[in-house]
Amino acid sequence: MGSATLINANRLWTRLMSLAEIGATPAGGVNRQALSDGEIAAWRCVIGWGREAGLTPSTDAAGNLFLTLSGRDRAAPPLLVGSHIDSQPTGGKFDGAAGVMAALETVVSLAEQGEKPARDIIVVAWMNEEGSRFAPGMMGSEAFTGERPVDAIRAARDADGISVGEALDRFHQAFPDVPHRPLGFAVGAYLELHIEQGPVLEAAGRTIGVVTGIQGKKTFQVVVEGAEGHAGTLAQSERRDALAAFAKVAAALHAEIGTIDADIKFTIGRVTVVPNAPSVVPLRVTFSIDLRHPDNAVLDSAGTRITALCQENAPPCTATVTPLVDAPSNAFDTRLRASIAEAAREQGHSAMDILSAAGHDARHLAKICPAAMIFIPCRDGVSHVEHEWAEPDHVAAGASVLAQVLRGLARAPAVEA
């Protein structure tokens, strides 16, 4: 079957652009954060498109959305395909959403053509991949795979003090007609399409990235505690200035961790100062650390130095370091990767192997089933910005490759790990 008959490219693009209108920002991006009113509206839209094609919606205790095309053997482990539809506060139209819309299009096209898969095929939109409103991210896929307990996820709070549990309960109340299924189930295989979020494919002139794996990631929250004081009366020698201590800590971290090698990625991305008043010596600074590297040994070694560097450079203040995420590098299933490369070749799309520098839900699914990812280029390699962009032809090409691989799996026995 030719690639042109696998999907409806025009419908895919139209739906992707329609979804981008939900949470649209004045600068052309998307602000559709996890469990928000915007994501409720997005769910209504996606569920409606799925129901039009006979897909059955369901959800679970972690707020993941599932749209199921029934197969001949309902007891066989289903095939999962999807990504996420939440965004950064100044995100783009494609991050996550392209993967969900491509998954929906592949399954809807399959249903329209009257083919009954050997097993269920489920389109999935994972809850809170981004971690922008509730940190850390990937809550839905981590709960699904047993990486994090639901109670711990529900306890997390956003900047306004709203807990995931409160937001999730409200979210589910908006969909009284969507049944709940048990959290986690056996999966035959998982596929995810995503924009690369980097410049490699575009620079190489390739349309399809066959993702070999995802580089490892660790995140931390650090609290530097000092003492408040009057900016005009407290002598410098008597101060326990949390912001001054933070500056020393940050400089030490960047000097040592940030220079380990060319592959290290070290980021302090969020800093909160209390009381954040012009004439008050800062009492407390809370900041985040994002650490990534493709080599787990290097990642672990760098991670162990973070606490020591913080505590060594914080005095006369104190520093408390709390690890949040510990996600080692992983490799994707070799047979699925070969199928992706073969589909790209048969359809005439240029392809290359590529390591994912960004994290994705597929990382967690790879621990419980054969999993793989397809990358498509994004303009200038930028993502998590409002001008994020992927060409319509590239979106269609990635979805068509996804469709061919998915159809092969749908006609075959379970993929063995």
TrEMBL record:
Pfam family, one: Peptidase_M20
Gene3D superfamilies tied to this protein: 3.30.70.360, Zn peptidases (3.40.630.10)
Metal-binding keyword on record: no
Residue stretches making up the Peptidase M20 dimerisation domain: 213-315
Stored CDD domains: M20_bAS
Similarity field: Belongs to the peptidase M20 family.
Name the record gives this protein: Zn-dependent hydrolase
